[in-house]
Amino acid sequence: MLFDDDLPDRDMTTGYRGPTACRAAGITYRQLDYWARTGLVEPSVRPATGSGTQRLYSFRDILVLKVVKRLLDTGVSLQQIRAAVGHLRERGVDDLAQITLMSDGASVYECTSADEVIDLVQGGQGVFGIAVGRVWREVEGTLAELPTERADDDASPAGPPAHDELALRRQARTAG
Q1: E strand or H helix at 7, and its extent?
Q2: 28 vs 12: CA distance, rounded Å
Q3: d(Cα 19, Cα 55) in Å, to the nearest integer?
Q4: pLDDT tens-digit profile, the chain (176 residues)
Q5: pTM value?
Q6: Membrane spanning segments where (predicted)?
Q7: Under 8 Å CB-to-CB from 78, ≥6 apart: which residues?
Q8: Which backbone phi and psi does 57 adopt, to 5 degrees?
Q9: CA-CA distances (angstroms) from residue 132 to 47, 58, 101, 110, 150?
């Protein structure tokens, strides 16, 4: 996990399908698929295990997806983003809400205090900042309105009843 911190504990058997993760992070499904296949952001609830299986992304996965998207929007290269994500994974993070990622469009800097942000800006480097705690709250608000799915339930997302016509046809086909 990228952020092993004081985020509220979440049920790791419940996640979000790819289209939901895309919507919450503001990315395309093609980006999501590429980032999962190349190991940038892999689904931690349930990875794809072959044709027809659905990846399930955790809240933290979607948070990372949204941060990566914001960094891409500033002009940071995917190579630099991979390095930054790798650094944060190795380092670990004590308090996510206190991190600000700064970018000059080429590199990514991690700031954990207001003094570090000021020093970076005064040095003429930082031109764009991402307060990760604020992104966390945005993702949380967006996901509250979107369907979840249990990792052990391959049939339907949580929320709508599983007795719709399509589900009944699937059950009949697999039963007989």
Answers
A1: none
A2: 24
A3: 10
A4: 444 444 444 556 789 999 999 999 999 999 999 999 999 999 999 988 877 778 999 988 898 899 899 989 888 889 988 888 887 767 655 555 678 888 877 778 888 888 888 887 887 765 678 888 788 888 888 888 888 887 776 544 444 444 456 666 666 777 76
A5: 0.70
A6: none
A7: 40, 72
A8: -100, 140
A9: 25, 16, 7, 10, 27
